[in-house]
Every structure is written in structure tokens, then in C-alpha cells.
Amino acid sequence: MDEEERDGDARPAMKRRPTVYQVAEKAGVSIATVSRALRGDGSVAAATRQRVLDAAEELAREQDEAATGGRRRPTVYQVAEKAGVSIATVSRALRDDGAVTAKTRQRVLDAVAELNWSPSRTAMALAGVANDTVAIVFPDLSGPYYANVIAGFESEVVDRGSAVMVLATHGRAASAQMVRDLSTRVDGLVIMDQTIPDKVVGEIAADVPVVLLARPSLPGVASVRTENADSAHKITRHVLGHARRRLRFLGDPDLSPDVRDRWLGFVRAHEDFELPAPEPLRAEGLAPEHGYDAALPILTDNGVDAIVCANDELASGVYRAAAEAGRSIPDEVAVTGWDDVNIALHLSPRLTTVRQPLRSLGATAGRLLFGQMESGTAQGEVLVTEMVIRESCGCEDVPPFYEFPTG
Prior knowledge:
Number of domains: 3
Distance between the termini: 49 Å
Number of strands: 11
Oligomer: single chain
CATH topology of the largest domain: Rossmann fold
Mean pLDDT: 85
Radius of gyration: 27 Å
Helix content: 40-55%
Order of helices and strands: HHHHHHHHHEHEHEHEEHEHHEHEHEHEE
Low-confidence stretches: 1-16, 125-130, 401-407
CATH superfamily of the largest domain: Response regulator
CATH class of the largest domain: Alpha Beta
Strand content: 5-15%
């Protein structure tokens, strides 16, 4: 049994607690209405809000009874009645958010103690979720890729009146638990790349709306990614069309699904030319220093005449390595990138690359997330990428939307 399975088995409560989907279904409203009702949004009618609260409490009570063999425990209604306050005031008093006077809060605490009541994890989690906040989870935050995705996501979210939380897992052993905990405090979650295992994604998606970003889709989970394999096929064919025959792909296909698809496009282009595709240069990451470290040995040995990079930052490291090795770009070594971030225009010669709509990627993730919160429907989208020809492949500078014929 692997670590994630043990971790999952050790947390059965995550699977037992009612979800926002169940509350919405029982109350006959949308997930977004549940969120607005639980945070006391004035746009929800009093009768609707009460119906949501009733549904949440009834579901919590049913599951508590199932877990305790049918024994009934005191309810939040009884606490509110004994303290002479509303259910919302009980919630605010327990959160101690400053909106309740000290005298009222003490009255609530006295009622809690007298009834020996403890708020269900479900009720508290639902209250935490309903805070008009959504989150996006990344494996890392270094580099312009993440900044552009965050900018697009934030613009979509802020326009809808919500706040954004950003979490970077950085490969920590506790990443799965970090994301689980975060999911109980937000209205919805975007999870990028392979930050957590599919099994954990499924568990979280059963509780709150989830959108996968730059990651293969899972059944019943919304997703958005960009097209990779076809554009990698095109740009590799373009380089081969310049009569380059000693190409290397720079990037580790095991690092992410996107890099893997770009590698597959590289291989397919070689098959078109009836050439064997050499093994990839497995850089340790996607930063400039990783490109430099991986490229310098083969450039020094004059073993390549073109390097197809998994992103623009790796390509910038190749430029430095080529300069140290005394190799001219593009006369001796053609170089291509991916993303078309700002650095692609400032390298000399300017970098031939594949443009990803990074801000649109983030904005689409936000739109899909809110769409799922409103309708409960998980949708998937694949965004178009396009080859941008500049000078680093050996071409004269041409219009940015030029595409080399692939037939």
C-alpha cells in the first residue's frame, strides 16, 4: 500500500462528511447559492437561506447518527434556542470574528457547554467554504509562466467579486494534506499539473468544485489545458525543414504532462522524416540554469545542430551555454522555445517559439470554476497554441502568426 493510500485510509471523515453538492441537492438550490446563503449574503432570500441551513444541519445530523449507531446529539438549533440567538450568531460567536458582543458570545458558549454540543466538522467546513474565496494550487511559483496564469485567473475571479488564495506545494511530502485542508476553506479550487495524485483530486472534487489546469482530465472533473503535441510536431518539422538533422529535445517528459506531450510531438516529427528521435536531454527543471547545465556539455562537443526546448526559460539557458561554447545561434545551432513570454523578444537573436495563451489559461480556469459552482456541471476545454517564427531557428523575421506547412 502506498503512502497516499495509507493517508487516505487514515482520514475516513473526509469521505463521510456531507458535501456542498449534497447540501445544494437537498435544499434544491445551486452550489453558488449554498455559498452565498452560508455567508449571509443579502442577495439570498431569507426563506432560501433557512432552507440551506436546514439541509446542512439535517445532513450533518444524519451522518452523525450513522457514525454513532443512531444516537442523536444536540443540534445547533438547540444551542441557538437556549442562547436566545440566531444560528448565524452561534456561528459568528464560535468563530469569534468580532461581530458578536462579548456578552452574547458568552451566552452562546454557556449554551454549548450546558448541552455538551460540539459543532460537526461538516458544519464548520461548510461555514469555512462559504467565504467568497477560491484558490489555485501550483507546483511552484518561479518564472513568468505562473505569473501570467495567476494574472488571468485573478482577473476573472476579482471581476466576480471573489478573493484568490494561491498555494505552491514545491513538491512537499505533505502536499496532498495541504490541498485537502485548503479545500475546506474555499468555495472552489483550481489544481495545476501533478501537484497531488489523481486519487486525492477525486476525493476533493467530491466535496467542492475543482478544475484541473495543465493536467489530463479525470472523469467528472472540469479541466483546461493548452494543445501541446501538434504544435511541438509543427515546430520540430520546421527545424527539420531547415536541413537540421542532429536535434535534441531539452526537457524532462516525466516532469509534467505538457512537457511529455511536447516530447511526443518532437518524436512524431522525426518519424515523418524517417529519422530516429534521440533521447531527450532531461533537464532537472524548467528554469534558465537547468537549460544551461543540460545544454553546455553537448554544445561543447559539437554534438547538435538544433535544440528544441520545452519552454523559453530553458532556451535562455541554452543561449548562455552556446555563448560559452563558442557556438553561434542560429548559424551553428538552431534554438526554439515554448510559451512566448517576454524574454523571447529580448534574446538575441529573437527566439522562435510556441505561443501559449497563458492569461487565457488562467482566466478560463476561473470561468470553468464559477460555471461549475453555478450549475454543478464539470466541463473541459483545450486552448489553441500557435507557432511564432523569429530568427533563432534560421529564418528571417516573419509575421508572428506564420505557420510552417505541415503537409
